[in-house]
Amino acid sequence: xxxxxxxxxxxxxxxxxxxxxxxxxxxxxxxxxxxxxxxxxxxxxxxxxxxxxxxxxxxxxxxxxxxxxxxxxxxxxxxxxxxxxxxxxxxxxxxxxxxxxxxxxxxxxxxxxxxxxxxxxxxxxxxxxxxxxxxxxxxxxxxxxxxxxxxxxxxxxxxxxxxxxxxxxxxxxxxxxxxxxxxxxxxxxxxxxxxxx
Length: 197
Known about the structure:
The chain is of the alpha+beta class. The protein is 15% helix and 31% strand. It has a single domain, classed as Lipocalin, CATH 2.40.128.
């Protein structure tokens, strides 16, 4: 991510959002007296800013191109389901929250496509469903989501950092991707494009 964009993003993290009300604007349909975060997720979200997670040696131009692709995604939460829509496909995940820890935890487990687009694959040959161990927080009207890149463990803080490729004899240093999601009013989603193999 270009240095100026990263500096601006970190400034938001450090205090820009804190200047707004502590709980942010009341989300549509959310009761501030509720003891659960689940209703706060409901609706359609887009990526406002993202940082970290890229390989440390990825050129800035390539990072910008990847960031533009990420920003085309739409995240729709409904109940305990998340649908991520890109121009190429839709993915569905089950969502489970743990609000009893700090930072709060969100676990996403990819659900199989319905209906199957090809003959059933024997269970032994199916790829394992994607599982994403995240932390989250609501702040200043935004939803912050952080997850590790290059390792399957959950991050412990909202601190974006690049993924450092392993050198001979050294372990790879995983990165942490941080998404800043903004609720969007429109229900329009990216138009799915046909893909050819």
